[in-house]
Every structure is written in C-alpha cells, then in structure tokens.
Design goal:
Elements lengths: L4 H37 L4 H18 L4 H17 L3
Length: 87
Amino acid sequence: MANHKSALKRAGQNETRRLRNRAVKTRVKNVVKEVREAAAEKSADMAGVFKTAQTAIAKAAKKGVLHKRTAARKIGRLAKLSQSVKP
C-alpha cells in the first residue's frame, strides 16, 4: 500500500475511476447484448434498441472508458446487424 500522501490520494482516485469505468463498461455490454437478442428475435423495435446502444457506446467513448475507434467499430457492427434484420 502507498505510504506518501500523494500516493494515497492517487490510489483513492484510481479506485474511484475503476468503479466508474466498470459500471460504464457493464452498461455497454448489456446494451450490445440487448441489440443482439433483438436481432435474433427479429424484434420490431430494433431501431429503438440500436439507438439506445449507440448512445451508451458514444457516451463511454466520450468519457474515455472506450477508445473512440473501439466505440466506432462497435457501433458500426451493430448498425450492420440491425440493417440486416427485417421485421
């Protein structure tokens, strides 16, 4: 464990950020899963589910949790999937 005051503060900041990042990453994983399930069921609300996922992924990238290219790749793949589904 850290001994210096600055190192203790840094450890606390890292823990706070780790928990925040974990929550955001979990949210992204869940919305991606929702889109894939909607695609498998050929859901009529595919556009709405995709829009929600796109927003969550973009916010994660904006916060720095995901790299912007990773976010773009995820959104692109989900868009391709949602376009291929015809209800």
